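Appendix B. Chain record.
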Amino acid sequence: MSEQNQQDSGQKSGNTENRPTNYNKDRGRYHRPFRKKRYYKPRQDQEQNNIAPTKLQFSFKKISIIIPLLNEEESLFPLTNEIKKVVSKMEIDYEIIFIDDGSTDRSLINLKEIKRADNKFKFFSFRKNYGKSAALQVGFKYAKGDVIITMDADLQDDPSEIPNLLKKLDEGFDLCSGWKKKRHDPLIKKISSKFFNFVTRFITGIKIHDFNCGLKAYRKEVVENVKVYGELHRYIPVLAKWKGFSITEIPVNHHPRRYGTTKFGVTRFFKGFIDLVTVFFTTRYIKRPMHLFGFFGALAFLAGIIVNGYLSYLWIKGEPLSNRPLLFFGMLLIIVGVQMFAVGLLGEMIVHTTLDEREYIIKERS
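Structure tokens predicted for this chain:
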């Protein structure tokens, strides 16, 4: 018998020694080995992607974003889209207020179209250019949020910094100012800004790096007690600090200008320093003018007395004084000192007759 016949007879007789392990004698055929069913388990990062991201939460009920603008027709729609992306990630009510400062291009037309598309956007339009301070003051007046965010409309301020500003206010600060640590501006503007900020820090004693950054966050109480006019918008941190509010700053992104031209001019540089003197006087000495005029008046009067006393001593010794210009200088110092002292007294009288208890800011009461 051949080997093939022996193998076939072995299979028929039930010999299973040479049969594969996957042979099923009931069915008389081979089958695939049984495998346990494997269940697909997504990776951890995939599970996280399937979960809807949680929105940022703050202690504030509503924020108002105030945006003054002048001839920024090209940047309004991109800015609107960027702001929507940012506020959609926050669990908070909001409103956006555009202040058109007398634009002569299509800015107002674009604002009307933005308003029709979304009621969260509002706008005010001036008949002529009144300046950034006037635009901000109108925005402060009509803002309904308990936190106010200000930013420029030229797309150089980054709306994605808004949550970071709100976090600083949540820490307990009243005002948070942006710091354009890396600026994308012309060289002359960078140099003048550094010099301006250095002088302001030196005179006011407030240690922040960028007073004029348009990106800031305020509690409602700050804008209710700080009045801005002229060119005083760049000194809002100074006005707030001297009224007792706590201020801080954070570095923020600053982008190159995409559209239009800068509104910076050399005249604004000189106006800024004149306004610094105004802020210094109105915030430090408006309620106590005698401390300013009286001090310098007394100093001039004392210097005049010393000069004339010295000349009197020389006259007693027999030296002629007719050809001594120092005599006229001493007399001038005495006259100026008396006049400044008198101005200080008049200022004190005016303050005492117009004193109003409402001018004091009460933080808490029981």
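Further analysis of this model is presented in Appendix C.
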